[in-house]
Amino acid sequence: MHSAPTLPGTVLLTGAGRRRNIGSAIARGLAADGFDLALSYCAEYDQRVNGEASDVELLADELREAGTRVELVPGDLADPEVPGQLVTSAREALGPIGALVMCHCESVDSSILDTTVESFDRHYAVNVRATWLLLKAFAEQVEPGTDTPGGAAIALTSDHTVHNLPYGATKGALDRLVLAGTAELADRGIRTNVINPGPIDTGWMTDEIRAAGAAATPGGQLGEPETVADLVRFLLSEQGGWIRGQLLFSNGGFHTPAV
Question: InterPro entries of this UniProt entry (predicted)?
Fold first, then answer.
């Protein structure tokens, strides 16, 4: 049982373009906990990388039918103007944002020898620069030293790098950036954490990858999107409020293979 939110009641959640992904599972969990939701997504990314059209409108309808206020705030986070616009749009539609949960990413497989400069730069723009600009705009809602609750920021990361080089490298930068927020933004009442969920199948795994991942996890099974959502819900609850500035491995004991 999760307590009612003590943060301002709106969450800006990025990367929620598909109903079967981690972001959507988090959205459902936070809606059940009583939060209103501003859902950010990039339809172009879902089509280009996942080969599927975004169906976030169906997710929004599902949540609204259950009584949650939902605002869709689309945008390509490779554009440096978009992060601030998302925060502004969410605030105007739903009020002060109590939490920022960042599930967005650029993730295109490539290696040291075949990664292009264009691809690397886009990974950096989405995974690192946009994360910084989102966190900055979120923090700027709150004046230092005021009694207004600042809120919480959570980002998802990964330790994958081999043949997924620009993704893994930029996720490493994301970790440092977000964790710095717990100290740098303490005067605004903001706490930050990063979650490494290990391998979660949201439609990208082959049978071979799924079997290898399960074999590398004690208990012989992989986590689900809802597994990640459970930890996010706890971190945003009153009970989870003392966990700050942490990189949390919530991966069932998964061990990253050496090769």
Answer: NAD(P)-bd_dom_sf, SDR_fam
Which residues touch 258 (CB under 8 Å, ≥6 apart)? none
With residue 117 as reference, give the H or E element that holds it. Answer: helix 117-124
Alpha-carbon span 234 to 159, nearest angstrom:
23
What tens digit of pLDDT does each residue of 168-202 get?
Answer: 999 999 999 999 999 999 999 999 999 998 777 76
Q: Is 135 left (phi over 0), alpha (psi -120 to 50) or beta?
A: alpha
pLDDT digits (tens, 9 = 90+) for 133-175: 999 999 998 878 766 667 999 999 998 888 999 999 999 999 9
Residue-range domains of the chain with CATH: 10-249 (3.40.50.720)
Range list of β-strands (E), 40-131: 70-72, 97-102
**CA 130 – CA 81 distance, rounded (Å):** 9
Task: Tell me the CA distances in angstroms from 207 to 71, 135, 214, one per residue in order.
Answer: 36, 37, 11
Write down the pLDDT at residue 143: 78
Query: Which residues, including other chains, have CB under 8 Å from residue 102's CB and lie 6 or more apart?
Result: 14, 15, 131, 134, 153, 154, 155, 156, 178
What pLDDT shows up at residue 148?
64
Helix axes 130-139, 82-94, angle to 10 degrees: 40
| C-alpha dist (Å) from residue 102 to 11, 61, 149 | 10, 21, 20
